[in-house]
């Protein structure tokens, strides 16, 4: 869902920056009133979680790939305005350091994934959840529905933003920027998510809420603030649902739906599942990839467990595990809609026959530290087992930078923190 440089005209990019600025301003103003010794570390952790989730590409119907975001989960725990800040920070970091999403498109990417997604996702969640108990199963269902609606709405917006480019900007009969019109861009983005990535996002969010109900219900009530008369009484953790049951139900619902959609797109052939050509995948190299990931887990996770603070131990280990497993997404033999590999010297795009000049010119302005999450000596066309290390290293660097940003933010505002009994709510602070 990340829009690269060159796919939006400068005017479109400027408009999207302008659209995002008011929301950023509101989010910062509200955050200034509610930063505390609990919300700052949690905001950093959830921003890191969003960053790691977005690195994990999955195959979706349409012969392309997509990813989750985790914005609605952040909104449920810390509120939608905290999610705006957290996901925006993760997206800006991805663009600056890893080239995932364009510098000129930061405004658009943040508007879609960091603003529309959590605001729409949380509004849908709140509508379904109502005034039910924190421990209610209804909240798990609400989390799934809210996150599904939120990321699907964001995908629709991306399709509109890309689709309008050839309508407004052409030269000599060719599109200057994104060449795909509404008929191609909207179905490609909307259907790929509605029948693929949105189900995965829903499962992640529902499982996250179920886990918090069981193990950390205090995080689900943190938005009320300490001493708030609206804060619900925390029931025993045993009142939470069985996580294995929730995971099993989600898998039983999501996996068949995604598989059926993939088979339909692939014409009923597993070799072309999701519309992707799996016959060219080097499965021996995939075996080496899985071996590398397995060994890394055995080495890194115990170290992460031993070195992390006790209260944050499970979260730190979970983040480390996600970072270690992100290379598995490289197995998918495809790229996101509209992207291309410069190393292959593409001069045309399938079904279009023209490579917009804007993609080449604007994309050369800035060079990220680790382009596309790869080490300098590893190209995008290298075997996935070679790319695995770059993905893992990038994941840990991104998580570390976001945690460092949270630490710096905490240090800067520490003297201005409100007393513990006067914490405000992310949602109601004005």
Task: Give a description of the structure.
The chain is mostly helical. The chain has a domain at 10-279 and 401-422: Orthogonal Bundle (Arp2/3 complex 21 kDa subunit ARPC3), CATH 1.10.1760.20. The chain is built from 14 helices and four strands. The chain has helices at residues 10-34, 39-55, 71-78, 80-98, 106-129, 137-163, 165-168, 182-215, 217-220, 243-265, 283-307, 313-325, 357-362, 384-413, and strands at residues 58-60, 64-66, 170-171, 174-175. It has a two-stranded antiparallel ribbon with strand order 1-2. A two-stranded antiparallel ribbon has the order 3-4. Strand 1 and strand 2 (64-66) form a beta hairpin. Helix 8 (182-215) packs antiparallel against helix 10 (243-265) and helix 12 runs antiparallel to helix 14 (384-413). The longest helix is centred in the middle third of the chain and has 34 residues, at 182-215.
Short description:
With 430 residues, the chain is mostly helical. The chain has 14 helices and 4 strands.
């Amino acid at each position: 869902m990340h829009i690269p440089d060159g796919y939006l005209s400068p005017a479109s990019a400027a408009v999207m920056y302008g659209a995002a600025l008011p929301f950023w301003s509101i989010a910062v103003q509200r955050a200034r009133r509610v930063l505390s010794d609990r919300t700052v570390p949690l905001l950093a952790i959830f921003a890191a979680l969003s960053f790691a989730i977005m690195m994990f590409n999955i195959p979706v119907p349409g012969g392309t790939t997509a990813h989750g975001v985790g914005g609605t989960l952040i909104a449920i725990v810390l509120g939608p305005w905290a999610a705006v800040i957290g996901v925006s920070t993760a997206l800006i970091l991805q663009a600056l350091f890893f080239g995932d999403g364009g510098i000129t498109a930061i405004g658009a990417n943040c508007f879609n994934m960091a603003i529309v997604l959590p605001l729409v996702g949380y509004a849908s969640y709140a509508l379904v959840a109502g005034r039910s108990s924190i421990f209610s199963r209804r909240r798990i269902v609400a989390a799934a529905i809210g996150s599904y609606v939120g990321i699907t709405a964001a995908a629709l917006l991306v399709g509109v933003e890309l689709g309008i480019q050839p309508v407004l900007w052409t030269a000599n009969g060719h599109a200057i920027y994104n060449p795909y019109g509404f008929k191609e861009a909207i179905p490609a983005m909307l259907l790929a998510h509605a029948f693929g990535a949105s189900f995965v996002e829903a499962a992640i969010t529902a499982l996250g809420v179920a886990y918090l109900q069981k193990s950390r219900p205090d995080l689900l009530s943190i938005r009320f603030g300490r001493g708030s008369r609206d804060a619900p009484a925390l029931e025993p953790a045993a009142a939470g649902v069985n996580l294995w049951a929730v995971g099993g139900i989600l898998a039983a619902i999501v996996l068949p739906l995604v598989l059926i959609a993939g088979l339909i797109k692939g014409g009923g052939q597993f070799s072309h599942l999701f519309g992707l050509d799996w016959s060219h995948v080097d499965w021996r190299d995939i075996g080496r990839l899985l071996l590398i990931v397995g060994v890394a887990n055995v080495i890194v996770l115990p170290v992460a467990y031993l070195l992390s603070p006790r209260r944050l131990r499970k979260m730190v280990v979970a983040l480390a595990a996600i970072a270690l497993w992100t290379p598995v997404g490289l197995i998918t033999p495809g790229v996101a809609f509209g992207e291309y590999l410069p190393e292959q010297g593409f001069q045309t795009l399938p079904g279009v026959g023209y490579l917009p000049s804007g993609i080449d010119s604007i994309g050369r302005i800035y060079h990220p530290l680790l382009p596309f999450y790869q080490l300098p000596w590893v190209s995008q066309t290298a075997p996935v087992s070679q790319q695995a290390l770059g993905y893992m290293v990038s994941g840990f660097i991104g998580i570390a930078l976001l945690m460092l940003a949270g630490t710096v933010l905490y240090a800067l505002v520490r003297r201005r923190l409100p007393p513990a009994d006067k914490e405000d709510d992310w949602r109601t602070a004005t």
